[in-house]
Amino acid sequence: MADTGGAVGAVIDRDGLSALVRVLREGGRTVVGPTVRDGAIVLDELESADQLPYGWGVELEAGYYRLRRRTDRAAFAHSAGPQSWKTFLQPQRVRQWSAERGTDGTLTAREEPPPTVSYAFLGVRPCDLRAITIQDRVLTGGRYADTDYRARRTGAFLVVAECTEPGATCFCVSMGTGPAADGGYDLALTEVLDDAGHRFWIRAGSEDGARVLAALPRRPEDAATTGAARDAVAGAAERMGRTMPPVDLRALLQGNPEAARWDEVAARCLTCGNCTMACPTCFCTSAEDVTDLTGGHAERWRVWESCYDLEFTHLPGGPVRASGRSRYRQWLTHKLSTWYDQFGSSGCVGCGRCIVWCPVGIDLTEEAWAIHREAEAAGGAPQ
Amino acid sequence: MTVPVPHRVVRSTAETSDTTTVLLEPEGPGLAPFRPGQFAMMYAFGRGEAPISVSGWEPPGAGGSCGRLVHTVRAVGAVSAALRGLRPGDRVGVRGPYGTGWDLAAAEGCDVLVVAGGLGLAPLRPLVAELVDGPGRFGSCSVLVGARTPADLLYRGTLRTWAASPRVAVATTVDRPGPGWTGDVGVVTALLDRVAFHPPGTAAFVCGPEVMMRATARELVHRGVPAQRIQLSLERTMHCGTGHCGHCQLGPVLLCRDGPVVGWDRAERLLTVREL
Ligand SMILES: Cc1cc2nc3c(=O)[nH]c(=O)nc-3n(C[C@H](O)[C@H](O)[C@H](O)COP(=O)(O)OP(=O)(O)OC[C@H]3O[C@@H](n4cnc5c(N)ncnc54)[C@H](O)[C@@H]3O)c2cc1C
Ligand code: SF4
Ligand code: SF4
């Protein structure tokens, strides 16, 4: 159920959304949100709310993504695109430190100064909001914090858009991450389009959010709008395109490393790593060391890496996970199971991106169901 | 992210044809103290970093804090070859300490077995130093060392010193003996018959190639040593040392954070599934 975060809600129109982008930008923030480009709804810096994908929807299936014109002018009636917010919080390439070697052989190393960008993310889906909190825990919640991530994340202003139009590949209900937002945002929006017009129910979830909300042209919330908003979100929960088997996925995956299904999926998987790049929580990186031509200056870069890469488990004696079977198993088991052991939650939020962007249409929900059925047939399925 | 702290090479000693031990002194404030079994990320300028165990420190007992660190490196690739080639006066970057380290407290009151294969003796050396120097908190202590050939044995001087100590028994074995070798020939597990220990009251510390660790742990369990008192130090790819890069996963374990030292009660299943 939609949560007002204890704050009194309001209603804004499209001009309120335009004001929101303006106010955030005037506050010195880089506003990032969905916009149409190259046949997809991508995340990009927005100069105004006019760049939002008004009137665009998407058709999704395993290995399939198409934009489609909607009959209305909805801004947020589309589900996850090819990118996620990690593109901004944990960019593909980041310099972590630089080192110099003096002519006398001395070594000095300097940490990269933290980036000073101040983000506002507009239109964060509840599943993606959960993905951000999962990455927070991975990259800053342990003994060591990733300083670059922390600098980008600290003070990022999050405007959630609750889901009213799930895609055919969505399963946030199975993962308990949506379609309603339950806190952790600065502002939450729910889009309403009915005979009474195009408007957004908006609530603040933080003091920052309340301050920004107070600067927008708005009117008090009314029962017709809040009722329609709640109905739309509840309706979305009824229309999930996919489900996960309703069992203990952590036990299922860790308990079945030798399932025959792993061979079956390995025969289809290209180990291309698209699923890991598209996934909003996949965080693995590699270290890259470079030197300039003089040889006196060196840099350490952190770059996105995929566990599907053969080099990922490179040891002097050869890769640990040499087969595609072991690499798909590692990815899915990590997402749905060992993530709990490592970071206290599932690593999957049910956004469906990996299903859509897999070139051969491998669907992790289907794989989980198949492993569940196989375990059940063998009498070893967890409840 | 912490950056490498520059260290100057004070001494470098060839151990074998491909392995060298270096003594490092921090240039400026040193790292926090290391415990036996922990590791550092060692940075060869421009080449990259490699996880390398701490093999000792000076002065003894300092854990390397503001003092000197000892590391033993075998050349197997670009980074380790650069580290192996370090000469006195060269500079190297060091980050750490990382990882869990050996839980020696869990062995108090027990007979202690230290079983090393090849380079596996490197992370065990500071542990044995504690057994040799420490007060009598333990029962009988034995150090069993295996190597491919006599020329591949690390720390031969140190082994002689330990053997002279009344606190530890030392036994060595090689796969292929050379001329003049009078010690044992064969796998390191065969040395278990050469030393005295009471299996139910024994704690074991094991490091070496994975096949050797598996065989040793199984043999120890077979003889009645409790699985949770058998500790192994495992190796996986590591790019960061701080739990963020994801490379060192072994099932539920992030080895740089939850390891590299893992109990056999936990490791057995993880090392039995192929390509986990
Ligand atoms: C906890 C721990 C403690 C250790 N302690 C010691 C010790 O005390 N002494 C010791 O000698 N060794 C130790 N090792 C092993 C040591 O870390 C490795 O031997 C060393 O990292 C090898 O690095 P290299 O660059 O020399 O070799 P390489 O085999 O070349 O690999 C180095 C790194 O580069 C990457 N890489 C290599 N080739 C490629 C490629 N083609 N494409 C992309 N990436 C590539 C790999 O991912 C790898 O991480 C330890 C390992 C661990 C995990
Ligand atoms: S595993 Fe797939 S569905 Fe789950 S969060 Fe990642 S991309 Fe989304
Ligand atoms: S599951 Fe699909 S996207 Fe992922 S590596 Fe395999 S082929 Fe690529």
Any overview of this molecule?
The complex is a heterodimer of chains A (383) and B (276). With 383 residues, chain A is α+β, with helices and mostly antiparallel strands. Chain A has helices spanning 14-26, 86-89, 126-140, 147-153, 172-175, 207-214, 223-238, 249-255, 261-268, 274-278, 324-343, 353-356, 364-377, and strands at 10-12, 30-37, 40-45, 56-61, 64-69, 93-101, 107-111, 119-124, 157-161, 187-194, 197-204, 219-220, 285-291, 297-304. Chain A has two domains: 10-92 and 103-237, no CATH class; 249-377, no CATH class. Chain A contains 13 helices and 14 strands. In chain A, strands 3-2-8-9-10-11-1-12 form an eight-stranded mixed beta sheet, sandwiched between helices. Chain A has a four-stranded antiparallel beta sheet with strand order 7-6-14-13, with no helix packed on it. In chain A, helix 8 (249-255) crosses helix 11 and helix 9 (261-268) crosses helix 11. The relative contact order of chain A is 0.17. Residues 1-6 of chain A have low confidence and may be disordered. Chain B contains six helices and 16 strands. In chain B, the strands form three sheets. Chain B has a seven-stranded antiparallel beta sheet with strand order 4-3-7-1-2-6-5. Chain B has a seven-stranded mixed beta sheet with strand order 11-10-9-8-12-13-16, with helices on both faces. In chain B, a hairpin with a 3-residue loop joins strand 3 (39-44) and strand 4 (48-53). The longest helix of chain B has 13 residues, at 121-133. Chain B is globular, with a radius of gyration of 18 Å. Chain B starts with a strand and ends with a helix. Classes of the chains: A alpha+beta (383), B alpha/beta (276). Chains A and B meet through strand 6, strand 7, strand 13 and helix 11 of A and strand 7 and strand 15 of B. Residues 278-281, 335, 348-354, 364 of chain A line the site of one iron/sulfur cluster.
